[in-house]
């Protein structure tokens, strides 16, 4: 099966922090595929390059090398005008549910915004579509009147997902989509994402620090360390029955895969979270 997203030798560099310091190599020749209906998790210690990879896939940052092929089109060579026709199909969902919404925009306008920006707003069908999108993410359409601060974190993240769905995407880049949420509401949002994937055949690039959650939610896992993808494996192979899986040593990332967790500081914790 042809991959929906095919990334080859992706390289992202940032300028050095001072005029004399060397550039930061944030992503070093990363290669991976994501198919329709599939979730590929991107895991690794803090600072290893996950968000930079996501930003390059979203074309929020032009890569410094490599290819990002989406739906058969090579994105890195497209100019901004050509990219505009592709952007709706690749949508982000970010970690901070409040930060990704404008504080003064009622929920219904936040969800309608992509339709307006893409010239697809219709005064009759538009409000109906917004209500339908809110129902799709299991929110009462009457919440559309509210401002983001009048919603819970979980409700706000559902609005973020509804807003992404308004563009009729084929790939969602989920950058730690539940890590800012109360543990009691995480499962609801993840179940929603899984149902949407099944119904709509969405592909997910899922950035996450929580390995038990990755094992539960993803199909495959790409392990990043120091800007490189060091291994890609089935999510079920991260570890089995809570017992460490015997694997060839791979340095820090292998420790992470064995022990089942990552700390924000980048050092693995001593056991499954
Ligand atoms: N705008 C920037 N300018 C300079 N360096 C940056 C910039 N953004 C990220 N970096 C550096 O690039 C490297 C990769 O950062 P990135 O945010 O992609 O990692 P990450 O794996 O997503 O980390 P985290 O899990 O903490 O979010 C880090 O060394 C980081 O300091």
UniProtKB/TrEMBL annotation:
Keyword Lipid biosynthesis recorded: no
ABC transporter domain mapped to chain residues: 12-251
UniProt KW keywords: ATP-binding, Nucleotide-binding, Transport
UniProt-annotated stretches for the region Disordered: 244-273
UniProt xrefs under InterPro entries: AAA+_ATPase (IPR003593), ABC_transp_ATP-bind (IPR050319), ABC_transporter-like_ATP-bd (IPR003439), ABC_transporter-like_CS (IPR017871), P-loop_NTPase (IPR027417)
Entry superkingdom: Bacteria
SUPFAM superfamilies: P-loop containing nucleoside triphosphate hydrolases
Alphabetized Gene3D superfamilies for the sequence: P-loop containing nucleotide triphosphate hydrolases
GO MF: ATP binding
Record-stated family: Belongs to the ABC transporter superfamily.
Protein name (database record): Dipeptide/oligopeptide/nickel ABC transporter ATP-binding protein
Source species of the chain: Streptomyces kurssanovii
Lineage: Bacteria, Bacillati, Actinomycetota, Actinomycetes, Kitasatosporales
């Amino acid at each position: 099966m042809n991959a929906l997203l095919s990334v080859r030798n992706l390289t992202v560099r940032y300028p050095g922090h001072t005029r004399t310091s060397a550039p930061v190599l944030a992503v070093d020749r990363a290669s991976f595929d994501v198919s329709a209906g599939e979730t590929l998790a991107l895991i690794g210690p803090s600072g290893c390059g996950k968000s930079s990879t996501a930003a390059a896939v979203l074309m929020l940052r032009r890569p410094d090398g490599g290819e990002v092929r989406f739906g058969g089109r090579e994105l890195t060579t497209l100019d901004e005008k050509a990219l505009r026709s592709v952007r709706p199909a690749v949508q982000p969902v970010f970690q901070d549910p409040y930060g990704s919404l404008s504080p003064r925009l009622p929920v219904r306008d936040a969800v309608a915004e992509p339709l307006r920006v893409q010239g697809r707003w219709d005064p009759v069908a538009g409000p109906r579509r917004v209500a339908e999108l809110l129902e799709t993410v299991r929110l009462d359409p009457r919440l559309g009147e509210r401002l983001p601060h009048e919603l819970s974190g979980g409700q706000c993240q559902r609005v973020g997902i509804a807003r992404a769905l308004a563009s009729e995407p084929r790939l969602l880049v989920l950058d730690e989509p539940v890590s800012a949420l109360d543990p009691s509401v995480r499962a609801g949002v993840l179940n929603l994402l899984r149902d949407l994937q099944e119904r709509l055949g969405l592909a997910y690039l899922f950035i996450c620090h929580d390995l038990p959650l990755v094992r539960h939610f993803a199909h495959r896992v790409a392990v990043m360390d120091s800007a490189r993808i060091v291994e890609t494996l089935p999510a079920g192979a991260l570890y089995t029955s809570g017992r460490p899986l015997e694997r060839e040593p791979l340095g820090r990332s292998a420790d992470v895969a064995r022990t089942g967790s990552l700390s924000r500081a980048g050092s693995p914790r001593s056991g499954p979270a």
